[in-house]
Every structure is written in structure tokens, then in C-alpha cells.
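BUG-541 | component: ligand-complex export | severity: low

The export step for alpha-D-glucose-1-phosphate-6-vanadate jobs runs without errors, but we want the raw record kept on the ticket for reference. Input record follows.
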Amino acid sequence: MTTTVATTPIAGQKPGTSGLRKKTAVFMGRHYLENFVQAVFDVVGCAGKTFVLGGDGRYFNDRAAQVILRMAAANGAARVIVGQGALLSTPAASHLIRLNQTDGGIIMSASHNPGGPTEDFGVKFNMPNGGPAPEAVTESIFTRTTEITEYRIVQAQDVDLSRIGRHDLAGMAVDVVDPVADYAALMESLFSFDAIRAMFAGGFRMRMDSMCAVTGPYAVEILENRLGAAKGTVVNAAPLPDFGGMHPDPNPTWAKALMDEMFGADAPDFGAASDGDGDRNMVVGRGIYVSPSDSLAVLAANAHLAPGYARGLAGVARSMPTSAAADRVAAALGIAAYETPTGWKFFGNLLDAAKVTLCGEESFGTGSDHVREKDGLWAVLLWLNILAARKQSVAGILREHWATYGRNYYSRHDFEAIETAKADAMMAALRGRLAGLPGTDVQGLTIEAADDFAYTDPVDGSISRAQGVRVLFSGGSRAVFRLSGTGTEGATLRLYLERYVAGPDGLDHNPQQALAPIIRAAHAIAGIAAHTGRSTPDVVT
Ligand code: VG1
Ligand code: CO
């Protein structure tokens, strides 16, 4: 039986960089999830359609899945494909949307944000191409949340999402599928599993930290079962509702146990970690950390060594704050390089138009045209394929890369949970001063240019403004300032720092030291301490 429930708009249901993210308790509040889901269905249409549904297994994932299914049925959907246990990594969901040519999908995740009753939850809608909804669609969804007066839901028992196969929910088909199988087959089609298997058989050792989040089952099946990595290679492999109390953000701060292992005595050859929903990756060699910007550049330079990319790359795209290391590779390969705003949704059109093959962000995101999301395990497998083909260590490959292309020293400093008004005032003041900055000297550095990044999509011509303030110094160094669009508490200031050094450089390879002059200049230019009361970042990556 379908019920139409009267409701009223709830303020602030505005999707950010990657869907709607709020405290779990907010999502569990009266009508909150329901209003947002109905707004999505009202905008994208639901009657007769097929969707994919899954999430990263965090607290409320299972309950939210049942609500979304009942609402899809009430809104007339024909069929929903759900990962068993309501689990799907973000890249696996993207693949299922494409593979089954569905009308899109709903992913339940707050990605790298912690999970649990007092932590975060999130919902995002992906389009029929498998990618995050573009700004025009998320804007329409937001507008709809401000107008909503009712939502539809069927009254029914829970669907048994633990049982693979077809179920019926008030006339709608619910197909519960193995969340791993199709994704693993896709990976086998892209990479030389034989070469990687031979490398493991030859004694190559790895540690994969799934951070008690969704990639555990994927990593165990692919790395241990199919590629023959030693049992126990994947640690924190069981997805838990609170991620075992961990912050499932694969960076040196939150994946410290992995870093300690990789820099300790008897470190394995290769280490990797992924985030809550499996779209991010961190890669570490024995005694050497690979910055995400460098990782994108190395993958671009070597992707042809994997069968799925043997024909070469159409082009490479990176988000604006990501270092220009990948641009140098693109120039050497004679392929196009694109610079987009932060967030994977901006890569979708470039991938669909086959203008680029690889994409990446400094925030531990890398991916390709195999799906329309960034893909953590994909990046790990491409690295493994390259290591198997080149028969060199991670350190050896990185050093050769820097010797060839020069090195883009890079770091991001995050200042978290700043009072929103203070952060906004700092950005407004900075934007107000942009025109006067070029030609001035700050802390011994000369500013060449300064702007607020705007992007015109080369495919559909849509324009996205105010995507972050860039200050370029002479010699190719820069500082970028922007506020996060994924936080759930106050504002987070992200300060991105970059310095290019050609060839073997004589610096000591400590990025914080190499970047010290730019860090000082950035603080002086924006008056971070004066505006926010903060002089040291909470997280450095
Ligand atoms: C952050 C990252 C951005 C990434 C986004 C979603 O956004 O900086 O590069 O695309 O998270 O990643 P923001 O607005 O907080 O800087 V995920 O893995 O959380 O979906
Ligand atoms: Co994520």
C-alpha cells in the first residue's frame, strides 16, 4: 500500500562537493532522508525506471536502504539493483549503473568522513553515465527540497538484502547482487592479472589497509583470492558500521598504522589504503610516500604498461588544486591536459566525450574512463601492474620520474572546524584584494598572478565560478585557498601549496621544508591567523 506523507521543506539540504552530507542524527531526523530522496525522484523521474542502490556500510546504511527502496517502489520504479547487505563501493556502483544501463543510482556514503551515530552520513545521486550528478542537477534537487510538500512510500516489510536474487516489493523488482563480482571482472579486463600474480608468487609483499570500510571484501577477493597475495595482506578488511572507530581517510595522518609499517624495519614492498566508500587511495612504497599528485603523474606516464591502456591515453585531467606534475607528463606524451574545479563531477563530460582517459585529484583520488568515479582499488591495481612490468621498486620509479620531469613539491594544509563566519570573511577579504596582488612582493616572493578559479566546461559550455583563489608566484610556485564542500561542522579551509624544481634538485626531499617560503607567503597574503585564530593546520597531507 502506498502512503503519501505530508511534509514541509527542511532548510539546508544543499548537496556539496559530493552529495548531501550531514551528521547521522540529522539524516535520521523526521522526514529528513525522505524529503531529500523524494526531491531526487521528483527531479530525475522515477516511474518505470531502474536504479542501482548501495552504500559503504556505515551506521544507518541498512535502514536508509530500506526507506529508499520503499520510496522507489511508491514512486513507480520498475527495478532496483542492490548490493548484497546494501553494500557497494562508489566505483562498483558506478560500474553497475553503466553495465546494466540503468537510469542512475543512489549511493549512501559520507565517503572519508567517520561513521556512527554521532558521526556522518550522506546520500548522492549518480547519473545514467555512472558519474556524480552535475551542478545543474544538484541545484534542481536543492530547489526541489525547498518546495516539497509530500513524499510517497509503501508500507511493507523489509526486503531481505542478505539473500542474492530477485525479490518483489509492492510490484517493484529488487535484484540483490554480489557487490564484488562484476567489479572484479572489470578489473581483470583492464590489468594483467598474470603478471601481478607472478610478482606475488615471486615473494612480493603488500599491505592493504581497508580501514574497516567498504573495500575490504573487494580487496580480499581481488588481491588475496585472485592474485595470490598472502592471506592477511588486507588488514581491517571487515566493513563495520563505525569503521572500527577509525577515520576512513587514506592519508598519512589517518592511515598512520600503514605509514609506520611501510617506514619500519621489514616493511613490505608496497602499501595502500582506501577510504569509506572505496573511491580514494593512498599509495606508499617501502620507505617512501607517494603524494597523490605524483601518483597521477606516474600512472599517466606508465599506464600503457597495463593491457587496458596499451593504446595510450586520450588526455589527462586534474582538479585545479592538484599539482601540475601530470601536465608535464601530458606535454611529453603530446596529449591534452585539462584543469577542472574540485570534485569528480567535473570529469564526467571530459570522460564521456573521450577527451581524457585518466583523471586525478590531490585528495587521494585517481580514476579512468572505466567508470565515472574515482576508484581506489583500480589505482592500486594499476600501480601493481606497473611494478610488475617495470620490475622496479616504488622508490626507484618515483626517483626516475622526478629526474625526467622535475619535481612538483606539494602539500595541503587543512584548518578544520573554523567558525563559518570567520572563514567566509577571510575568503571575502582575500577575493577583494586579488586585483592588487600581481607585481607585489610577499615574504621575498613575487606574485605574478592571482585569480578566483572559474571553469568553462569544454563539452557543454556550463560555467562554474568561485572555485578557489589561486596565487601564482614567479618560478611556477603557487598557493591555492578554498573552503571545503564536504565537511559537516563549521568550515574547513584548505590551503594547497606547490613548488616546482627542475631535474635532480639538491633539496632534501622534505616537502614541508621545500615549501616553507610559500607557506609563509600564503599565511601573510590571506591573514589566516588574524581571521581565524589558527596558525597551524590540523591535517597536513
Ligand atoms: C573533498 C576533496 C575533493 C573530493 C571530495 C569528495 O572535497 O577535496 O577533491 O572530490 O572531497 O571526495 P572538499 O570540498 O571537502 O575539498 V570523497 O572520497 O569524500 O567522495
Ligand atoms: Co570517497
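Assignee comment: Attached the raw record above. Residues 452 and 472 are 12 Å apart (CA to CA).
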